[in-house]
Amino acid sequence: MQQKTLQRGLGHNIMAFDKYFRIYLKNGLKDHNLNAAEGMVLLSLIEKGNKTEGEIFTTIHTRDPEITQDQLVHELHYDKSVMTRTMQSLEGKGYVVRAVNPTDSRSFVFSLTKKGAVFKEVLLTNMMEWNAAVLDGFSLSEIDLMNDMLARLAQNAKVAGSRER
Cα–chain-centroid distance for residue 165? Predict the structure, then answer.
């Protein structure tokens, strides 16, 4: 396979996957008056609270139960302006609460409200249905391999994207 075909095909497939994931998420959240960006932020906050006992034990002194807006920007790869609007919207809708960061008073930390925590089941069900649909026909070993390869691809993309030309 030619290098140009490989690059164009791979990038095209990744962009298509992302597009259809966002459409799926948007459709699953529209009855709750949420958009895809808000859903991704809530998912990040929910995942932060879904740690095993061992994970909680190893991170109890190094990680707060809240997350800063900058951490969300880094984790979700959104622009700061998009994240600001998203957090204001989620706060206005009662899904998150903002507090002054106890370790840096120049920033805020966000955590789920009771309404956000209750919404967890809806969002996680939506994500499980998506995963079942897109991974249909793949073996567990194929899924593990694909996940490892995509993680490496993302890391390489991060390095390549940060290089100055």
Answer: 29
Handedness of CA 98, 86, 44, 115 (dihedral sign): positive
Q: State the sign of the Cα–Cα–Cα–Cα dihedral 108, 83, 62, 95.
A: positive
Q: List pLDDT tens digits, range 85-112.
A: 999 999 999 999 998 888 888 888 888 8
Query: Among positive and negative, which fits the CA dihedral 150, 11, 134, 77?
Result: positive
Q: What is the dihedral of CA 57, 63, 66, 72, to 10 degrees?
A: -120
Per-residue pLDDT at 163 exceeds 60: yes
Q: How far apart (Å, rounded) are the C-alpha atoms in residues 30 and 23? A: 10
Dihedral class, residue 114 (left if φ above 0, else alpha if ψ from -120 to 50, else beta): alpha
d(CA 18, CA 78): 14
The pLDDT of residue 3 is 58
Angle of helix 69-76 relative to helix 80-92, nearest 10 degrees?
120
Which one is the CATH code of 3-134: 1.10.10.10, 3.50.50.60, 1.20.1070.10, 2.30.30.110?
A: 1.10.10.10
